[in-house]
């Protein structure tokens, strides 16, 4: 990433605060009363947020592009306390899930435990090696860090699988949530993870990480009863397309909320790079969202959806349920989306069996949200987009046409543009 002029900062999980690790930090969660456990989790959450805020503030003031990676996030704590206790902690501290989960982090990656799909590599064993005159605790730490043993692991295989499920479920609902499973060897698993990050950031890595996941979309015939779904989160989603002064980009706004709490995103959709559609997304404030609404494109309807997010077969899915008011072409429309490296029959086996899948529509322009939202009938409109194409340089960045970039309000220039509205 340094070659791409990005600075990487890593907010590590603090082992001294890990609750489930014996002989580390001196705290055993099982030894605490329920009341003290609740207090501990509350203080742990607040401490985590303060540490993260320090990194976020430093990154905002960094003169270079900066990526902050958090090893564990605020919602992870919800996986290990009863739901009522978690809701009590949030209410007491003026927090809500949309802020903790959706607005606070731009991208969530869940690395599936080796206990699910790579059981042979899941071990609690700590090798016995000689490390001179160090005491036993230091010897264990050296063994764990230098030789790849897993001192932090204390759960049996079934327990580790259960905790992994709960940790993943804590993040259901985040708009950009990727699950990296153990379907490949470990080195490839890491490349898939890095590729996922670069893709979300709009960074073209060429063929160095050629195993990137692709977005796939399926038409669903009907909506089954809620009881057929695994644990899910529903969100109200509103999309607004903005005016583009030049061709070949599609700027839009999104408002996404749950229980009266909202997050706001500005997106620029660009031409494809190496067959991958590029969408550069930037979180914005409510004030900026309202300002940008002044650039709304009157050729498009506002799109209203219910977005249902759930995990199935170690795959993160989003089911978009189109709502009125809308164009008649959108009434009753159901579209299932996911990001995956899997193709063909193997992918079809991963799809939720409780959904009646009609067909894959990934590259079908009739199911592009841009076209679905057009006010004019497709037969007469001049604005139907069959394929988003445009001139780009060797790095995939839009080139200048007569001195003007073919991208409108690029995210990196968003603040400057907003100041002029």
Topology:
Layout: E1 6-11, H1 34-60, E2 65-70, H2 83-92, H3 97-103, E3 108-111, H4 136-147, H5 157-169, E4 177-180, H6 186-201, E5 214-220, E6 232-241, E7 250-258, E8 261-273, E9 276-284, H7 286-292, E10 303-312, E11 315-323, E12 334-340, H8 344-350, E13 357-360, H9 369-372, E14 400-401, E15 404-405, H10 414-419
Explain how this protein is built.
The structure is a single chain. With 421 residues, this protein is of the alpha+beta class. The longest helix has 27 residues. The protein is globular and about 70 Å long. 20% of the residues are buried. About 12% of the residues have low confidence.
Arithmetic mean of pLDDT: 79
> What form results from the Cα inertia axes?
globular
Helix/strand class:
alpha+beta
The overall strand count is: 15
Could you tell me the strand content as a percent range? 15-25%
**Order of SSEs:** EHEHHEHHEHEEEEEHEEEHEHEEH
Strand order of the largest sheet: 9-8-7-6-10-11-12-5-13
Cα-atom radius of gyration:
23 Å
Main beta sheet strand tally, sense and closure: 9 strands, antiparallel
* DSSP summary: helix tally: 10
- How far the N terminus sits from the C terminus, by CA atoms, comes to 34 Å
The low-confidence parts are 14-24, 126-151, 398-411
Helix content estimate: 25-40%
Summarize the structure.
It is built from 10 helices and 15 strands. With 421 residues, it is an alpha+beta fold. It has a 9-stranded antiparallel sheet.
